[in-house]
Specification:
This protein has about 160 residues and is of the alpha+beta class. The protein contains 3 helices and 8 strands. The chain folds into 2 domains: about 80 residues; about 70 residues. Helix 2 runs antiparallel to helix 3.
């Protein structure tokens, strides 16, 4: 998914952030093309309207499961999307409760479901649809954990 970056100095060469895919990391685009790499690892070189080159880099999101990384351009932090509210974060992370029930297996299933929930909450779907979809993912995670746990216990003979 692409998000426009509202940073001063990029009116004629707009910047967009493309979130990570299944097998690729997040990317910065300028004018629809991938931004060239900067001089240091993990940086990008962006050209401002006045012709000056500035360095951009991704910063870790405060919440690990947020699919949209924080962005820093020329030393200034740019808010690409608003942070999740506390109640959204609680709802998204609800499957992580499986860690208390199922140990490592519950943690794996719970964190995968929480990451899917975060991606759903960042879509342009209507609010009710996002909450229904994430509720379905959470319910599916609980059911999947149950099935995997039963199969695992059957394999080890308990």
């Amino acid at each position: 998914m692409r998000y426009p970056v509202n940073a001063p100095g990029f009116a004629s060469h707009p910047v967009e952030l493309e979130t990570a895919g299944m097998f690729s990391g997040a990317r910065l685009l300028q004018g629809g093309e991938p931004a060239p790499n900067g001089s240091r690892r993990g940086t990008f070189s962006l050209r401002q309207d006045d012709g000056r080159a500035v360095i951009a880099r991704f910063r870790p999101s405060p919440f690990v499961i947020d699919p949209v990384p924080a962005l820093e351009i020329d030393g200034r932090r740019i808010e690409v999307v608003r942070s999740f509210r506390w109640y959204e974060l609680t709802w998204i992370a609800l499957p992580v409760v499986l860690v208390f029930v199922g140990g490592v297996l519950g943690a794996i299933v719970g964190f995968v479901a929480a990451a899917i929930n975060a991606q759903i909450m960042r879509t342009g779907q209507p609010l009710a649809a996002r909450y229904l979809l994430t509720a379905g993912v959470t319910a599916f995670a609980v059911a999947a954990y149950g099935v995997i746990a039963i199969l695992f216990l059957g394999l080890v003979g308990r």
